[in-house]
Structure formats: structure tokens, C-alpha cells
Amino acid sequence: MRSFEDLVAEGNAVPTEGWNVSWFEGRATEQRPSWGYQRLIGERLAGVESALDLQTGGGEVLAGVPVAPPRLVATESWAPNLEIARHNLAKHGASVVSVLDWEDLPFDSSSFELVISRHPTVTIWPEIARVLEPGGSYLSQQVGAGSVRELTDFVMGPQPVGVERDPQAVASQAEAVGLEVVELRPESLRLEFFDIAAVVHFLRKVIWIVPGFTVEAYGERLRALHEQIEADGSFVATTERFLIEARKPAG
């Protein structure tokens, strides 16, 4: 059995660039939403001439679709991900543009038939409405309110659950800029960690679960969690996901 110190050191050393999650195999499992986001966007991309992927990360999800439209653009804000995304998306002929998540988009109005985004940190609805062509759609899988709150509360103590990621609140924001919400589907899913190394890497990678997380700052809570995992076999949390599609009126 490996020591707490060895496991924490391993989780703290794994690179966090990109969204390749193969390192977690055997260490953590996450239930996937029923709609199958990659398959869904693959179907949509095959039927349009232009598409924009916001906050693409390392482009891993987008790279996995079988067919890309003639014009495919992706944005990413984190510098280490830009070259990874450019490499992953080269086979689709996509251009990857550096754009901060909260910035206005550097694209002409009414320039994309489809805008997609998986797990955006923020959704700038006025900009999405602006760059969509009339009749175009925004399709996104998003993180819902209170996702993985069991882990947040264990590490930080009980925390309030904000309403800004509530699916109905997000739908209202889309409608406020003139988009029509044609689908809104939430799901609660199981996330399970089998060792503390997986927890450490997850908290370093998904930085909003425990804001400002470092091993040094939360060493005592990590040790307590390690002991709980050793006793119970795993630590179980709940991820909140929702699918939203919002359409720009054609008129």
C-alpha cells in the first residue's frame, strides 16, 4: 500500500494541460450524461458550413468528431492549451484563436451557423447572440450549480451553492438576449475517487471546485480524505450537468 505522501506527490506532479483524462483510469470514474455530447456535436457539425467552439481546452473533444464543417474556429484562453489544441485540431483544418473567456469575440456578427461549448467557465450570451447567423444555434454542455459539492465541502467546510449556474437561470440569460431556448436537460451523475492522488490532480485541474487549492494549504483535509478513502474504498461525489440549446430567430 502506497503512503499518503507518495500519492499526494504523484497527484501534484501530473501536468494539467489539456483535457486528456486517461491518467485517471483506475483511479477515478465519472458517469457521462445520457445525451453523449461528442456524438451530438458530431452530428450537428456534419450539417453546417461554419462553426465556433468556445473554450476548447486542448481540443480533445472537438478533434474526436468524424466530420468538420468547411469553416471551423476554436477559442482558448489558457496559453499552454493553445498549441495542444492547434495540434489536435489540425486534421480538421481548424483555426485556434487566443481569446480570454470573458472578452468580446473577435469575429464578425452573424458569422457562424453553430456555436458550441463544453463546460465553459462563463457564457457571454450577448456575444454568442451577435456572432450567430439568423436561424443558427448555440449548443452547450455546462456544469450545473453545486457540482461536486461533496468534495468542496469536505475540503473547505460547508459552502453556499450559487444560483448563477442553475439551468433555469442560464436559460433566462439566453432569452434575455433574444435567443429561443429549444432544449434544457439537466442530469445528476456519479463521480468516484479511488485514491488521494486522483483527488489532488482533479483539484489542480478543475480549479473552481476548491478555489486557490494547493497541497500545502489543504494538507490536513487531504490526509483526512485519504484516510476515509482507505476505510471506505472510495469517495463519492455528484456532478451536475445540463445540455442547453438556444436558437437565434431566423427573421
UniProtKB/TrEMBL annotation:
- Source organism superkingdom: Bacteria
Pfam families per the UniProt record, alphabetical? Methyltransf_11
- Single GO biological process annotation from the record: methylation
Query: Keywords on this record?
Result: Methyltransferase, Transferase
Q: Where is the Methyltransferase type domain?
A: 52-138
Question: InterPro entries this protein is in?
Answer: 23S_rRNA_MeTrnsfrase_RlmA, Methyltransf_11, SAM-dependent_MTases_sf
An example Gene Ontology molecular-function term: methyltransferase activity
**What protein name applies here?**
Methyltransferase family protein
Q: Which organism is it from?
A: Kribbella orskensis
